[in-house]
Amino acid sequence: MTRPGDLEAVKAVLTEAQRRSLIGASPLSGQIEHSEGFLRALRLEAVDGPVLELGSGGGLPGLILAVEDEGLSLVLLDSTRRSTEFLRWAVAELEISSNTQVVTGRAEQLGRDAEYRGRFAAVLARSFGPPAVTAECAAPFLRVGGRLIVSEPPVGRAARVATPGRPDRAERWPAAGCSMLGLTPEAVLRDRFGFAVLRQTVLCPDRYPRRPGIPSKRPLFI
Q1: CA-CA distance, 42 to 89, in Å (whole number)?
Q2: Is 59 a domain residue?
Q3: 222 in a domain, yes or no?
Q4: What is the pTM (predicted TM-score) of this model?
Q5: Backbone angles phi, psi at 3, to 5 degrees
Q6: Closest CA to 172 of 128, 135, 124
Q7: 188: which strand partners?
Q8: Residue 193's closest CA among 156, 154, 141?
């Protein structure tokens, strides 16, 4: 849980994010709980490197993770200056600059940058895009053994993942599609919220990610 001494500061920052329409208008308590679900999923095994949040927007879950676990090294990535200007203000306001970096840029471009490619122990995505887009943009950032953790729809909305040795059905994360990126679907975790977990079993091939906009225009899988 968020430390009591930080709770009011976090709520104030997230209230400002709502005012700027950078996060949804639903109650902050639920949005914070959802972010803590990401932290529980991340902590299922040791995190032995930096963590990247794709499309950080108003900073959920990234700001919550940075406040609750000072041992994490976080990079909050967003392509819009409106979001990253807010995130830099939020990082200063919450005094988390020691473990949190804000980066402005397109995932498709930074995924080819030697400073970021193959560097991360985990990539998090809350509402970045459809599975194929998220997978193609995330995989280049992950080191071998790294995890992609993605927020999933509620039960009953095709939130399945492939199981090794079983033919693909209507999974959101088909094994054949993910394997093109070096990813292997592992599980869907559920408590109050759902999260898909995929493992980077080999480095993402050099041909990915494709040019900005292409992953959404021509997705690798449906």
Answers
A1: 25
A2: yes
A3: no
A4: 0.91
A5: -60, 135
A6: 135
A7: 196
A8: 154
Q: Report the C-alpha gap between 177 and 221 in whole angstroms.
A: 6
DSSP class per residue in 15-40: HHHHHTTSS-SS-HHHHHHHHHHHHH
Two tokens at 168? 């693909």
Question: The domain containing residue 9 runs over which residues?
Answer: 4-217
Pairing label, strands 74-78, 100-104: parallel
CA 63-64-66 angle, to 5 degrees, is 65
Sign of CA dihedral 139, 141, 145, 146: negative
Q: How far is CA 134 from CA 16, 125, 201, in A?
A: 27, 7, 17
Q: How high is the mean pLDDT in each 10-residue block of the chain (222 residues)?
A: 70 97 96 96 97 97 96 98 98 97 98 98 96 98 98 66 44 96 96 95 98 97 91
For residue 16, is it within any domain? yes
Q: How many domains does the chain have?
A: 1
> What CATH code is carried by the domain that includes residue 180?
3.40.50.150
Closest CA to 16 of 72, 60, 81, 48: 60
Helix (H) or strand (E) holding 138: helix 131-138
Residue 212 lies in a domain: yes
